[in-house]
Structure prediction request, 894 residues.
Amino acid sequence: MGAGRANVGDMAKGYEPGPIEDKWYAKWMEDGIFNADPNQNKPPFSIVIPPPNVTGSLHLGHALDNTLQDILCRAKRMQGFKVLWMPGTDHAGIATQNVVERSLMKDGISRHELGREAFVERVWAWKEEYGSRIIGQLKKLGASCDWDRERFTMDEGLSRAVRKVFVDLYNKDLIYRGKYLINWCPRCLTALSDLEVEHKELEGKFYSVLYRFADGGEGEGITVMTTRPETILGDTAIAVHPRDERNRHLVGRRVSVPITGRVIPVIEDNMVDPEFGTGAVKITPAHDPNDFLVGSRHGLESIQVIDAHGVMSDEAGAYKGLDRLEARDAIADELKTLGLLLSADGRKHSVGHCYRCGTIIEPYLSEQWFVRAKPLAETDIAAVKAGAIRFVPEQWTQTYYQWMENIRDWCISRQLWWGHRIPAWYCADCGKVIVSLETPAACKCGRTNLRQDEDVLDTWFSSALWPFSTMGWPDDTDALRAFYPTSVLVTGFDIIFFWVARMIMMGMEFMEREPFRDVYIHALVRDEHGRKMSKSRGNVIDPLVIIDKYGADALRLTLTALTLQGRDIFMSENRVETYRFFLNKLWNASRFALMNLEDSPGDIAPLCGEDEPHLRLHDRWIAVRVSNVTSEMTRLLDGYFFGEAARLMYDFVWNELCDWYLEMSKPALRGGEGPARKNTSQKVIYQVFRDVLKLLHPIIPFVTEELWDAFAFGGGIIGRGEWPVAKSYPGAETVEYDMAFLQNIVRAIRNLRAEVKLPPQKTAPLMSLRLKDQAKTALISENSDMIKMLAKVDELELSALGAPKPAKSIATVTGDWELFFPVGSLMDVGREITRFEDELKKLDAEMKKVAGKLGNENFIAKAPPEVVEKERAALAEGEARKRRIEENLEGLRR
RNA sequence: GCGGGCAUAGCUCAGCUGGCUAGAGCACAUGGGUCACAACCAUGGGGUCCGGGGUUCAAGUCCCUGUGCCCGCACCA
Prediction:
């Protein structure tokens, strides 16, 4: 490794990633190149990883997310930044608790049998054993995190940060506790925040139910509509809108609740939509969020008829013990027999489900802790408006504002055992609540009968602190000083609210600075048909399988190339193959280069210099191109244009470096142009590969490291190398223009060859090229050996435009040159005549367009002069071309 | 209801602040065992840029409108 030039023979089998990737990752770790040093005298660049769940296994979303972060970090390291990529994992409250519970269930043990302490111990044991699996998988992907700094949301330091934040917010009255109707998962037996509820459209029934008057007054009763008849048992009022002409007269009357017979009042409340249904609504404060508000406004009683398990409670009378959904049908049946069920029509409505286990959530009345979000959100909106934080792509800013502006209080308590326990204690004697950093010894009332709150905090509470808690906050650390605020956060849009918004919230509150300057939101990885990947669909592509089969570089390159701002990624194994071919191409091109480099040939500087006598057009050209690609690549990475960056390199390496430059270098490398040319050519190739490998390294680190080593470029690891510098070569534009001219001639010859179906290995005896421009004649004649080789021609005859053309020949004509291929009896002349006639027709149409444009006064007056000039030239050129085609036709007809 | 996105070749998509003959990859067709590479090379066919209006000298690009698809949030008695 690193000692000298590789044995080229070993490379002949093509690129095989497996052993190479493992070897280099180990070397990188050994050399500590990922380690961040806050005290280095360099500009900082930092990223915190979106901490994967400890229960997690690497999926394509992670692979994408971390590939992009890795690209940025590796590029920035080479660009001279001190880089911190902070890694770690999230304890993932519900998810982890569920996983461990399930594994206990296999042995027939429930967590309640174990008890809280023993259960939490089990979870820690599970975490120690399996929790680092995803870290190993990130390493396989090539992630260049500073692993020495790996953190866990429940490790000691982070737990301290969590406590401090909770206590401070409580003291500022930004955290409060209260009895509210919250989202409850009857399976997980915990409260959920609004975000943790997933709404799905379900087919339900819309029941019309008659509530008979119970006050002896006129009429039969009031009809109300409901999708949840089981909640009828908990009704404590009927409400109508105060200005509803249709129902106003009902206010103040009394009706009896079906089945229970409870007599309830008719009240008025603005919440009712008078247009909807009958305009009368049954009010169940204990089981519906809107009804809860109505209930508290009117001081209505709350009757809980459904318990925490989703089972009908004591209050449900005969229905006690029935599951809520079973009770729904049973109660509908009873209403029917009572003659109170007027109708039951099908109706689609959206129903909330637990985002973890999919159980239908239940609005449930209980005592919970909340973060008062509104006052915090104001600062956070201002931070984005002021430009301190920038979303990329920009459209996500809207999404962020919309949520922040309509934010509701965040329910942060969870009835789980795995997580950060809420630092609140209750005095059994005086009932006082004590919120404190340390476990209090006694209550203010002097007694010591204290009990800590049983609940833990929402997982997202601790992840909200991640950008500063991982760097040692609340202590004042070198890392915080050097690396906070972080440079960019890279994540998917699905956690903008869960995580991004809340990090901003906590960062602004506790660091008084934004946690990151840019938020790069990438797309979702879908299957090749654009469907979400899911286990149940069976369309999940496992990145680890892909890595095994094609290598991490192939996966990284594929994901990167498919990453376009604002577009989802449609992924298939087939696409990975395409990009794997590129790695092989790069491998073979390098192999070719190495075969032709004896020793380190040294540098030519500048590479495009005028004073280097042995540089030819294509040498200068590739130097110019490398330079332009360098500045383009730098710009694209800085702007998070990952897909464009990957494709820029792909196209450059394949279509320019391999297809043209290396081909054109062959005569020199084989010694046909003498020792000086050979040496010059070697030097150019050496330098070109050195820069190209560096530019590719952030995207495909493994193969470039291996090739770097094979070339023996020196300076150790490629990642330690400096990012190439774009140079401005004098005359660069001319070089590119000349090269394009030359390429066009070669392509034209190849086309003519194909036209007469000349087999590729056969050389064409003669091509006649007429050039308009003297300078071009010199250019072509200097490079005619090159052209002859690339296009397989024996003789290339040069003359000025207008020279007599050869008989029985086919031609390609442009304004600058005409190319003739005397074909004699090689081809079907009649067919060729038709081709020219077609071309003439096309040309006519085009010229009409241009002529029309030039005939337009407005165009002449208002368009920029260079555009008008261009059009004039095009017209002149077209006319010349037309004449030549006509002549050509004549020539063939003769 | 509020907000956002997308519509370009058979498929997946580029086309940036309007200005070259609208491009690429895959697929397809033809030819090729040429000494880096068949995981390759060369060449070719294929487009009413979703419909309709407008702005402009000029629209795939900007504006309006219609249609179709997708996503998020809220509501859903």
